[in-house]
Amino acid sequence: KQNIAIAIDGPAAAGKSTVAKIIAEKLTYVYIDTGAMYRALTFKAIQEGIPLEEEEALMDLLEKTVIDLQQSTAGQQVLLDGEEVTLDIRTEQVTNQVSIVAKHGKVRHEMVKRQRELAAKRGVVMDGRDIGSHVIPDAEVKIFLIASVQERAERRHKENKEKGFSSDLEKLKEEIRRRDQIDSEREVSPLVKADDAVEIDTTSLSIKEVAEKILRVVHDKL
Ligand code: C5P
What we know:
The protein is an alpha/beta fold. It contains ten helices and eight strands. Strand 3 and strand 4 (75-80) form a beta hairpin. The structure holds cytidine-5'-monophosphate. The site of cytidine-5'-monophosphate (C5P) has 14 residues, from helix 2, helix 5 and helix 9.
């Protein structure tokens, strides 16, 4: 079987990680969550009191930081300098500030270098914002997932409530809009659909339907 690279990009909360995990499992590929890498750096910077606007300080921090994405039977685990931070990087505080960290060109350059090393062997499903457009421009399959802000906020709202977290739908919509705006308008490799990406609007589709659509694109390439 040929091992390929599958890039899945799209705006915040469009369901990228959920379907990427399903696709990776079906193909026994490695799932690489690039957002988790930016989140881990953001978490560490907040903990160490480093201002998120200061590119050089963030770079000094990133250079001595090891971020490991591991797959376990319980799902993906994120290790920051050997310590598990899987849940710590999903807090509202990190979510609402990660796009500031991800704007810095030097930070992105280093993250992209690490991501390309992970993708070099193929057999990967990588999700993020710039994977098809920049990180793996020669990915054999490129998917761009979109959904309305209303739909994305409602999904997140439902998830939060199921987890027993307090959740405010209007606030979620505002946060998603704001994060999309920063990610789309930044100067260095902004969120953009690659010319050769297949766009899928997931607004009225189930997770299973989205995964099936992607698998069809994948099987055409294999
Ligand atoms: O995918 P997730 O929502 O966890 O990503 C968190 C943030 O990390 C994004 O909003 C974006 O600012 C940044 N990111 C990025 N490039 C990627 C992946 C994530 O800029 N490839």
